[in-house]
Amino acid sequence: MHIIRNLSELGERQQPAVVTVGNFDGVHLAHQRLFQSVVESARRLNAVATAVTFDPHPTRILAPERTPKLLTTLEQKTRLIERQGIERLVVLPFTRELSELTPQEFVRQVLVEGLGVVSVHVGENFRFGHRHAGDVQLLAELACAMHFQLEVLSVLEARGERVSSSRIRQLLSEGRVGRAGRLLGRSYSVGGAIVHGSGVGKTQTVPTLNLAPVDEQLPKDGVYVTRTRLGEAWHESVSNVGHKPTFGEHRLTVESFLLDFGGELHATEMDVEFLYRLRDEVKFPDAGALKAQIQKDVRRAANFFRLLKLLKRRSAQSVAPR
């Protein structure tokens, strides 16, 4: 996938583009459907499948006090968009100057003159231009006037629930990681550098890997069944999101205990994928009581993974040719 941050990089002569525009935070199921629509249309029209997004998130410039916790970093978002088959990602630096473009100016300067658009694909609630003045009705008028096609996709629902980044954030804040994952089309994860903790786990309870502080949305404080990636390998794990109240108040941390890991640790980064919520984070009377509870958590997690593997085997057998 070709990534550009300035439309001038494209030059004057370029292949026509099929384009979708958005923040695409989380790259959830509705976003994925948009990207698939773009890719299919680009193949028919012999055009470049293109996504336009913004960095930083517009609210960080226009209303920083209302900026939501994001679901994905730009790096994660880029990787997920590439997996959808998008050929070119345009990451526009979001500035006040860009925010002040009228809907007509945005379409003309960015989509028509900048990208040579032949078809635009958006959701029915798409808004654009200064103060979100543009909607799909105006975009349809501009498409007619500026001679490009427009595809408007209806709102997507999964199991009767509308798919949106804000809904996924809400579910995560409630600890409902399974439902959040269903809207994402994958389990929710966070990642970053491995850092040294306070050492109490290694000496008093169980040894854990500590994730460096993240800016992205975290699930509600509590204990979760997770998978933790070190290098190319994923490990079954139990992870705590919280402040370790048994040992006094600490900053918010994510720490993982690996169920199936032995040997020396060489990885410097980790990803934690949240599968199921076990319980709230609790202040225990002492380290011994906490260790006993962690052992119970580990047994429940092991049962979870055994059941998951059993269901996968049965599913594979049911679709196998006979």
* Discrete helix count: 10
Beginning-to-end CA distance, first to last residue:
40 Å
Q: Which structural class fits the helix and strand makeup?
A: alpha/beta
CATH hierarchy, class of the largest domain: Alpha Beta
What is the total number of structural domains? 2
Low-confidence regions: none
Largest sheet properties? 6 strands, parallel
Order of helices and strands: EEHEHHEHHEHEEEHHEHEEEEEH
Helix content: 25-40%
Query: Globular, elongated, flat, extended or rod-shaped: what is the shape?
Result: elongated
Mean pLDDT score: 92
List the helices and strands and how they pair.
Blueprint: E1 2-4, E2 17-21, H1 29-45, E3 48-55, H2 58-62, H3 74-83, E4 88-93, H4 96-99, H5 103-114, E5 117-123, H6 136-146, E6 149-153, E7 157-158, E8 161-162, H7 165-173, H8 177-184, E9 188-195, H9 200-204, E10 209-211, E11 222-230, E12 233-242, E13 253-258, E14 269-279, H10 287-319
